[in-house]
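dumping this here before i forget
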Amino acid sequence: DTLWRQVASQGQSKALTSPEPQRVFIHLDYIWPEEVQEQVDQHQADIEALWQSPDGGVVQFDNWSARRQQLDSVTVYPVCIHYARRAKYLSAYGQTPDGTLGWHNYRLDRVRSPRLRVLPWGDPQVPTRLKYLRDTGQLPTSEQVQAQLDAAWGFNFYLPRALLILRFPPEFARWYVDDTVRHPTFAAVAYADLVALVQTQVAQASERVAILQVLAQRPATDAYYWGWMRVGDVNVTMRLRDWRPMGEVIAPLMVRQQMVAEAQQELERYRVPEPEG
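structure:
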């Protein structure tokens, strides 16, 4: 509504005497009910207030890990907030849910603490490494996060990066892949260039051989795309699933094998039992 009012009022010398019909709508889908959204907004407000303070600080909260199916207490330095995958996330550096020190994206609706606890830098619960980074002027920045997001396709920018190669039937690629923006590294590639690409960008010899064997059995007339992806990123994995059965993952092998296992599992679920007798 605010955006449309600004658009409608451009070029007019005085306030509108009658409201213009709204013609611009932005639909932001959230995956939470309204009461959860209020709690998420409160967490965001607390973090933004911390960023406004001269000395900043560290936050501590209980986080529910869907992958680990348990509640973890984490102490982290908040770097930036994203709206992604229909939810709000905090990118932070510090004590991760598995107990190591590093980057992690926290979905704010999975923060189970009613309020974030702000720790001053002198608090003994602040990890020593974080104190060192702060004292030496090396605290992580949002620019570092963006650089990693640009380096490979996937929101979880701290996951390992690997070469992605996809194959599509030409007609499918024409209507659903060509001229679409997926990631800065994602682009069409000629079949003739794939061998050199694999040989220079895949470090493990056995994986190179396996990928080249698959490519040798595929038609040169199909459409091929390549890029860099974060292996294990849920968002990228879901996109690759959406392209099935037209999109074939050729590399990385780990993801290809995952797609094979999932397709076999789906087939078993849809298989109709033979009638008895």
